[in-house]
Design brief:
The protein has helices at 25-31, 138-172, 188-194, 244-253, 333-346, 372-395, 411-415, 418-423, 441-451, 455-465, 475-484, and strands at 4-10, 13-19, 50-53, 56-59, 69-73, 100-106, 110-117, 122-128, 179-186, 215-218, 231-234, 262-266, 272-277, 280-285, 307-314, 317-322, 330-331, 361-365, 368-371, 405-409, 435-439, 467-468. The protein is α/β, with parallel strands linked by helices and 488 residues long. Helix 4 crosses helix 9 (441-451) and helix 4 (244-253) crosses helix 10 (455-465). It is globular, with a radius of gyration of 22 Å.
Amino acid sequence: MKKNVVTVLQGGAQAVIHVERGTLLSVVLNGHGAHLDMPCGGKGTCKGCSVWVNGEKCLACQTAVQGDIRVELSSPAQLRQIEAGELASMPLENPMFSRYGISIDIGTTTICASLLDGEGEINTVTRKNPQTSFGADVISRIEKALSGELRELSRCIRHALGEMIRELCTGHGVSPDLVDAVVMTGNTAMLYLLAEQSPKTLSHAPFQADRLFGEWLDSKALELPVSPKAKVYLPRCISAFVGGDITTAVMASGICNRNQTALLVDMGTNGEMALWHRGVLTCCSTAAGPAFEGAGITHGVYGIGGAIDRVWVEDGRIRCSTIGGGEAVGICGSGIVDSLAVMLKLGVVDETGAFTGEEDFFELQNGIGITGKDVRTIQLAKGSIRAGMETLLGISGMDAEQVELLSIAGGFGRYLNLEHGASIGLIPEKLLGRSQSIGNAAHTGASLLLQNQGLVQVSEEIAKQAHTVELAANPAFADHYFRHMLFE
């Protein structure tokens, strides 16, 4: 049977692919390394996989190849650098590596990797997690894995890690073969998919992980382009939905070394958080979704060049800044929070999130703005994170006023305007003067392990002592959730 020809154009490059008639275009493109954004998992609701087919805009996940076609893709976007944190501050007293080491944080939406050498020098790269092609959140990917796509989920993340390792080494002028130690942290599901471990136990009650890691693995088994003798460590997870990334973030933050009540919140897709109070570490995870990463928002984008990252009012006019200073192409997480804060200040929306005027759209720049649907999406995300915080505090018999330090972790958290976050109710206003952004603490912790392998035991003790609160079974969470979907 004669196959159809799909000609793909991207950034001046051209590829010709021969496929069976009737094949979904998303399957064709993802199978050849395009890794389209499909936060909805290919259901056709998010419109993240829009492409131009023979001059017409189409959704790749809903378009079947019915003949020879020409597909145009935008050039691959460069993510804004997500700082790894103060990685060079740890003296190399007992490093895992003898020549070079690599630390990696496998986030649900973003991957961050750094190269370290004996002088403590750092080279860092960041890219989108290609598994977003299978769905924006952990649950979507677990479902895909259980439906027979586990190998492909594992293959695509390993391929991305391999490319990042080569990029790091090339940029530093060294051979990847000289890398003899790797630390990779991530939430429990991300580590399952990396290791090609069936996530079946994570998919249903009682949601008990049958593998918590804290393991040394073979670099060959993970298909990493490093020394065949390289040590690869995956930090111990705390529970099914509180992963190794929180273990390393807690270690890096040092909250367990403080004689004060401290709350750490990683405002990523999973909304993981940890409370240190009177020598007890209590954790939880709330499904915030990827809205603060720009996914599911009409003009939402990741932290790429041209993304609106700051919004404010000056002389009665809306002002915006973009990453790189160029023309606006969309809005990233920090810009979304700023936009909502400004909309509330100007009375564009009320406390319920409803637009007060006839228009259901708030323009920022060049036709880019926030819709009523976007407001609802952010309300769900911020309600989930805030409800997790309030529930965690309530279980410990506390309220926000008793927290002495709030540490906000994650790539989005680093760029969050804390005052605007408080004004929309994302963080308690009482904690505004006691809040700090600490960047990608999970990645920082992974790098600290590389620099001092004596911290492996410290990280494992953190994970073992932590208590996990299951929010789904907690009635207080639902109450907080509905209350904090409103704007304060």
